[in-house]
What we know:
Number of helices: 4
Number of strands: 0
Largest sheet: none
Helix content: 55-70%
Strand content: under 5%
Amino acid sequence: MTRDLGDLTAADYLEAAREMTAANRPYLAHMLAEEAADRTADPATAAGIRASYPHPSARQESD
């Protein structure tokens, strides 16, 4: 199924980020979550999304 990228919602990007996390693709999950956050109107919700999907190199440095 082909969709126009402009039609995708924050929920679509967040779902894809979850799928990439499950597939052990942290960089792609992070990028998709960033797009979801950018498409979220509420700043607190966007911040929560970003906190849930930090940049993978930032996680490695803190471990």
